[in-house]
Amino acid sequence: MEKRRKIVKAGMFALVATHPLARAQMHHGAHRGAHGMMDHHGMGEHHSAEAYHQVTELMALDRMPTRQALLPLPQLQNTSTTAKRFQATLVAEPKRLTVADRKQTEFWLYNGQLPGPQITVNEGGTVEILFKNHLPEPSTVHWHGLPVPADQDGNPQDMVPAGGERLYTFTLPKGSAGTYWYHPHPHGRTSAQVAKGLAGTLIVRAADDPLAHLPEQHWMFSDVRLDTQGRIPENDMLDWMNGREGQFVLINGQYQPNISVSTQTRVRIWNNCAARYLRLALPGCLWQVVGTDGGLLEKAAEPQEELFLAPAERVEVLLIAIESSRPTLISRYYDREKMMVTEEAVDLTLAQVAVEAKGNLDLPEVLRPFAHLGQPVAQKRVEFSEMPMDHGDHSMSMADMHNMFFINGKTFDMSRIDLRSKVGEVEEWRVFNNSHMDHPFHIHGTQFVVVQREQNGTVTPEPFNAWRDTVNLRPYETVVFHVKQSMPGIRMLHCHILEHEDLGMMANLEVING
Ligand code: C2O
Ligand code: CU
Ligand code: CU
Questions:
Q1: In 3D, which of 217, 162, 56, 182 has the Cα closest to residue 110?
Q2: Distance of alpha carbon 183 from alpha carbon 119, whole angstroms
Q3: Cis (ω within 30 of 0) for the bond into 186?
Q4: Interior angle at CA 383, CA 377 and CA 384, nearest 5
C-alpha cells in the first residue's frame, strides 16, 4: 500500500537560515521553476523545521501509543431542564496532558478535553453557551457553518479578553441539521490556538432524519506537532507560507486507533486540521457519501474509492465492503503545490479498521428534499491571490508575510467592508484561485451550493446538490456557487488554511437588510 515517489517542488523563494521562530528572513532568490532548493530527504513531516539552522527536533512517531480502541467523542452535558434549550459552559484553558513519550504537553483545550466536547442539539432548539476565556490572551468561539446571528458567531471583531466571559446564544432553524464544529477566531491567533488543541464538534439533528435509526460513529481528524520535549512548537516561516501540519494525525484525539465499524454505521467525518488535506482510502471498501457540511444530500452519492476532505470540510458516509475485513485507513499523498518544499509522496497510516459487512442498507430514494435557492439576483467575484513574484532580490521578514495572501487584492482589515449582500437575496459567487497553491474557501453564516468548477477552460458541473460552507480551490480553479444570507451583520470569508487566514487572507462581508 505504501507508495513512495519523490517529488521535487519548484520553490519560489530561497530561505536564509536564521533564527527559526523569531526573525526568520527569506530571500526572493529563485524564480518559480527553480528546483530542489530544499531537497532534504525522506521527511514528509520534518521539512519545515529543516529549512532553518536551528531545527526544532520533532518527537519520533513511535513515541505516541497506537492501536487503542477508538473512543467516542466526549459530550458537552446539557444543564438545561427546559425542553428545546441547550445550556452549558465552555472553558478555554491551558491543560497539561501526557500523550507521548511520558512527556507533559501544555495544550489549550475546551473543558480540558482533546478534542473539545461534542455539542449535540436539535433543529428548533436554542443554544446558550457561556464561554469563559481562561487563556492568557483574547479568544472567541466561532460556530463553523451554523446559521447563527452575526453577533453570536465569534467574529474577530468580537473578542473575549483574557479572563473574560460571554454568553453565545442562538436558535437553530429547521433545515440546519448537519455536521459542524467550533473553534477560536481571534485574528492573527486562530492558527496558534487551534494548534494547541482548541476545536470541538457540533451536530444538529433533525426530527425527520431518515437515517436516525442507524448507529453512528464520529471521526474527528486533527493534527498536532510535538517536539522531542513534548512541547507544541510555534510556527516557522514555512508553516506560515503553506499552513501547518503536525506530525501526529489524530482521530478523536487518538493516534492510529483501532476502529470497529459496520456497513450499516453512519460515519460522520471532520477534517479539523489547520492545513492538512485528507484523501481517505480504505482498501476493500467504498465510501458512499450521504451528507456534507450542511447535512444530508438529496440522494446518496455514487460509491467512491477515495474520500477527499479539504481542511474544515465534513461528510457523512456509509461504508460499502465486499466482505468483512481489517484494512488500514490511509490518507493518500496530496500535492497541494506547497511553496519551497520537497515532499515525499507517502501515504499516511491513520487507523486500523475492522469492517463488519452487514449487507445492503435500504436507503430511501430521497434522503432529504433539496431546498433549491432559486435564481440568483446578484453576482459576486472573489479572487484569492498571493504576492506577485516580480520583486527583486531582497530579504523578507515576518511583517512581509502579512502582505502576502490576498482576497480581491487586499489583506484583511478588521474595519473595512469588502463586500455587501442583502438579506434573503440569492447570489451567484465566482471564486477564483489566482495562485499556484490550493486554498480552501469558507464563508460564515450560511451554506452554499456549488454549481460548477472551472479549470484550464474545462467546466465541470457539480455532480450533485450539496450544502457546503467550505470548498477547495485548486490552483487557477474557479468555483461557482449559489448562496443566500438570511441574517444581517458582518460575515467573514477566508481561506481555511488557518495560517493564511491569520496572515489576512480574509474579508468582511456586510449583510444588510434589503
Ligand atoms: Cu472555521 Cu472563519 O472559520
Ligand atoms: Cu466558519
Ligand atoms: Cu490559503
A1: 182
A2: 12
A3: no
A4: 145
Residue whose Cα lies nearest atom 1 of ligand 1: it is 144
- Between the CA of residue 218 and those of 162, 179, 314, what are the distances in Å? 32, 10, 11
Q: Which residue has the cell 486554498?
A: 439
The rounded percent of the chain whose pLDDT value lies above 90 is 83
User: Domains of the chain, with CATH numbers?
Assistant: 2-40+216-356 (2.60.40.420), 85-205 (2.60.40.420), 378-512 (2.60.40.420)
Q: What's the CA gap between 214 and 264, in Å, rounded?
A: 7
Check: CB of residue 446 under 8 Å from CB of residue 153. no
The confidence score (pLDDT) of residue 199 equals 98
Confidence check: pLDDT of 197 > 90: yes
Other C-beta atoms closer than 10 Å to the C-beta of 410 total 15
187: which 3 cell numbers?
485574528
Indicate the helix (H) or strand (E) that contains 467: strand 467-468
Burial of 22 (0-12, 13-18, 19+ CB in 10 A): exposed
Q: Which are the contacts of 463, defined by CB distance < 8 A and separation ≥ 6?
A: 301, 302
pTM score, whole prediction: 0.90
Kindly report each contact of residues 397-405 with a partner whose C-beta sits within 8 Å and lies 24 or more positions away, as own/partner. Answer: 397/23, 397/25, 398/23, 398/24, 398/237, 398/240, 401/237, 401/240, 401/241, 401/503, 402/503, 402/504, 403/504, 404/241, 404/503, 405/495, 405/500, 405/503, 405/504, 405/505
Q: Dig out the grid coordinates for 163 from the structure.
A: 479572563
Beta bridge partners of 418: none
Tell me the CA–centroid distance for residue 310 and ligand 1, in Å: 13
Q: Which residues line ligand 1 (CB under 6 A)?
A: 142, 144, 183, 185, 312, 442, 444, 492, 494, 496
Smallest-distance ligand from the CA of 503: 3
